[in-house]
Design brief:
It is a single chain. The chain has 11 helices and 10 strands. By secondary structure, it is of the alpha+beta class. Strand 9 and strand 10 form a beta hairpin. The longest helix is centred in the middle third of the chain and has 37 residues. The protein starts with 7 loop residues before the first helix and ends with a helix.
C-alpha cells in the first residue's frame, strides 16, 4: 500500500488496523471460511477500536471519520479477511444511514449498540425478483393507524439471522422509486423470520439468508425519514457501501500480491529463484500498477463523497467497478503464480479469489455501475 499521500493520523489509523487484521483476522480466516463461522466476538473487538461506527458522529458513539478514512480502514482489514471486512462495510453503512437520516430518538435507540457491535446491522434492499432493478421492489408497508405492517421477502442479506437491526426498503406508495420508504425492523419483531443459510462460493465467514416479513407490525416511529424517501436513502447508503466493497477488494488483492512475492522468492526452478524470472517480474509489476491505479480512484471517489461533489455517485460507481474487477483479476493472477499450491485451501489464495468474486456483484453489479457512469456522461445531451 502506498502511504505517501496519507496524513499522520491516517498512518496511525492504518497501523492500528493492520495490527488488528494480522493478529485477530488473518490467523483464523481459513478456519472461519471452512467452518462457516461468523466471529461476532472479533467484530466486537474491532468495535473497541472504533471500527463499527466509522462514519457515525462522535456524540452518538461513533468515530466521526470520513469516507477517505473509511476506505483506508476497510482495505487494511481486508488484508486479514475480505469476508469479515465486507460485513463491517455493510454494518457501517447501516449505522451511517441511521445517523444521517434518523431523528434524535432513533439515533439514541440504535447507534450506541451498533457502534459497539453489541447490536449488528443488515441492509435489506434486494428481493428475489428485484435485484439490479431495485426500484421495482415489491415488499409492502401498509399504514395501519400508528403502525406499519410489512410483508415481503428480501434476498441475499448479509448477516441475516445474526443481525439485530435491519434497514428494510418497502413500498408505501405507487410504482417506482418515489413509492419506497425505509424502516428499521428488529430481530425480535413478530412475523420476522429467515431462510436457511445460503451455500456460497465465498464470504463463508458471514451468514447470507433471506429475510422474510410476514405481516411484521412495527410502530410508525420505526420509519427512517419521510414516506417516499426510502429509495434516495438506500442509494445514498450504497454510494458509501460501494466504496467500502471497493476498498475490501484492494485489501484482499494486496494480500494476494504480497503472498505471491513471498512465494516466488522462496521457490526455485531450473536453478534460479522464480522471483528472478523477468516474465514473472513483469506480471507482478502489472498487478502492483493496476492496484495502485484502482486505489487512487477509490480515494478520489471517497474525497468527492466527503466533499459533497455533485459527481460523487458517478465516481463511486467508477471506483466500485474498477477496483472490484481489478482486485479479482489480481487475486486470480496470484493464484496462477502459486501454481498448484494456489489451488490448495491451506495457502489462503483460493479463499481470497472466492471472496473477491462476489464483490463484482453486490452493492450493485458492475454492469449497473456502467449504467450509472454512462447516465452521468449522457444526461446533459438528451
Amino acid at each position: 500500500m502506498t502511504t505517501t499521500l496519507l496524513t499522520k493520523d491516517q498512518l496511525a489509523l492504518a497501523e492500528v488496523t493492520l495490527d488488528f487484521a494480522q493478529e485477530q483476522l488473518a490467523p483464523h480466516a481459513i478456519a472461519w471460511d471452512r467452518d462457516k463461522h461468523f466471529p461476532v466476538d472479533v467484530l466486537r473487538r474491532a468495535a473497541g477500536l472504533g471500527l463499527a461506527g466509522i462514519y457515525v458522529r462522535e456524540e452518538s458513539g461513533g468515530s466521526g471519520l470520513g469516507r477517505a478514512d473509511g476506505v483506508l480502514v476497510l482495505e487494511v482489514l481486508a488484508t486479514g479477511c475480505p469476508s469479515i471486512a465486507g460485513y463491517l462495510s455493510i454494518h457501517n453503512m447501516v449505522a451511517w444511514m441511521i445517523d444521517r437520516y434518523g431523528d434524535r430518538s432513533q439515533r439514541d435507540r440504535w447507534l450506541p449498540g451498533l457502534c459497539t457491535a453489541e447490536t449488528l446491522g443488515s441492509y435489506c434492499l434486494t428481493e428475489p425478483g428485484a435485484g439490479s432493478d431495485a426500484a421495482a421492489l415489491r415488499t409492502r408497508a401498509e399504514r395501519d393507524g400508528d403502525h406499519y405492517v410489512l410483508t415481503g421477502v428480501k434476498q441475499f442479506i448479509s448477516g441475516a439471522g445474526a443481525s439485530d437491526v435491519y434497514i428494510v426498503m418497502a413500498r408505501t406508495g405507487g410504482d417506482g422509486p418515489g413509492g419506497v420508504s425505509a424502516f428499521v425492523v428488529e430481530r425480535g419483531d413478530p412475523g420476522l423470520s429467515f431462510g436457511p443459510d445460503e451455500r456460497k462460493m465465498g464470504w463463508n465467514a458471514q451468514p447470507t439468508r433471506q429475510v422474510v416479513l410476514d405481516g411484521v407490525r412495527i410502530p410508525a416511529d420505526r420509519r427512517l425519514g419521510a414516506e417516499g424517501e426510502g429509495f434516495r436513502i438506500a442509494m445514498n447508503g450504497l454510494n458509501g457501501g460501494r466504496l467500502g466493497i471497493a476498498a475490501c477488494s484492494l485489501g484482499g488483492a494486496q494480500s494476494a500480491l504480497d503472498r505471491s512475492l513471498a512465494h516466488l522468492a522462496d521457490r526455485e526452478a531450473f536453478g534460479a529463484r522464480l522471483l528472478d524470472a523477468q516474465a514473472l517480474q513483469f506480471r507482478l509489476a502489472d498487478m502492483a500498477t493496476e492496484l495502485t491505479a484502482a486505489r487512487a480512484l477509490v480515494r478520489t471517489a471517497a474525497e468527492a463523497l466527503d466533499g459533497g461533489d455533485p459527481q460523487a455517485a458517478q465516481l463511486c460507481a467508477m471506483a466500485k467497478r474498477f477496483a472490484t474487477d481489478t482486485g479479482y483479476t489480481v487475486a486470480d493472477r496470484a493464484l496462477q503464480l502459486h501454481g498448484g499450491y494456489g489451488y490448495l485451501s491451506e495457502y489462503g489464495i483460493e479463499k481470497i479469489v472466492r471472496d473477491l468474486r462476489v464483490h463484482q456483484i453486490l452493492e450493485g453489479t458492475n454492469e449497473i455501475m456502467r449504467v450509472i457512469v454512462a447516465r452521468g456522461l449522457t444526461e446533459n445531451l438528451r
